[in-house]
Amino acid sequence: MRITDLFIYPLKSTRGIALESSEIDAFGLPGDRRAMITDRDGHFITQRELPDLARIGVQAGPSQLHLSMGDKQMVAPIPMAAKRMDVSIWKSIVNAAVADDASNHQLSEWLGRDVKLVFFDQDAKRSASAEWAGEGAPVTFADGYQILVTTTGSLRALNADLETHGEGRVGMERFRPNIVVDTEEAWKEDHWAAIEIGGIRFDLVKPCARCIMTTQDQSTGSRDVPNPMPAMGRIRMSADRRVPGPLFGWNVTPRGTGRITVGDTVRVVEERPEGWTFKVRNRA
Fold it and tell me: Which of 29, 42, 60, 219 has the greatest CB tally within 10 Å of its CB?
């Protein structure tokens, strides 16, 4: 097995950037989900409630974000000695740096509502769930964990079910992974407890429950496109109450540092023989 794709998403819930290689640190892939859009009270906003975020392209520099939306362009400086505010993301409260007023005003005009652009800087702190990832596993503005891994074999199986039911096909971009592993068989990742890439151990700590974001075109935000949720409901509905809903991909915590590259070998170093339990549905 090998890595076929690497992605980061510098501004949470906007377009991703494909990479040929990446460093790995305790937070995952550097630059991933280091910025986020919130409402004026600091509550995070994603494509779940604002599909137009899919239309925002991002290029990240060392001191600024270059943002685009259609023919609109802006440069948002990454604040250094910044004003700060507490922001909420799921059950976490993070003290984040806040962008300058001009950037916030311009983004608010683009999105048609009052928003703020915030940054996870060196003074921001957040940890993944200790129940799943262990104590002291740092995470930025990702939904909950450092890295998301998906496999090509599982996407083929999902698309086969969609096509059998006349529901079209979807691409891997719908699932917004960081690492895509090329596999022949579907759902093998359910049986991986840990993998090794480039000498780094990655623990698969929790399957990823999927939501309405998978139903949106990741370049336009449109929901008038093939929808993977029915297929996931038929073949990937979790039977474990700890992680309810349809599952695709696994949340991963790195246990070392180094560099990984597209084409690197992926080796299973610890297995989960019991896999994961799923509800049996009528697939007719």
Answer: 29
